[in-house]
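Annex B. Sample input.
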Amino acid sequence: MLYLTLVSSDWDSEREHDREVRVCFDDETRELIHTLITVLKGPIEVKIIGTTPTQPVATRAVLVIKKEQSMPGAITVDTTNETVTLEFTDDKGDTAAAPVSASGSALVVTFTSDNTAAATVATDATNPLQGDITPVAVGSANIGATFAYADGTPVLEADGVTAFPTPAPAAVTVSAGAATGDALVLSA
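Annex B, continued. Sample output.
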């Protein structure tokens, strides 16, 4: 651990105690800083030019039925392209990247339907975070998802201990398709 004293004209006198910051560097950077201090024979001034924005940390998984529809989750028996996507958000509800396994193992999502008589769902062949919904008959179903890493390890929150919560299911309602033509049936 290397200690640096940061000097900034933006700090007011009430925050003097905040000037000393503990910073951890890789070996190469640490050697460079030690060399600078040795050559300059004393403290060096560090100016922060900008900060690197931090990536949002996923804290929640959400199932989203195809967003571009006016009535997401309302489909007919004739629908051929309905999808559900597993998305991740941070603690503020902003989009975040999916959690990454320490071992580099891929995230595997298993989609489910609680009423396969109304709609089924299968993981998309090209997007592992998307499920393709197939309407079967008029009715409703709750589409769910579970996920883990391919190596079998559970997905954990940023603390490395707490299991990532399962997303709430997304409701899908399948209604009758459009009429295929005019017909009048008379019976005697």
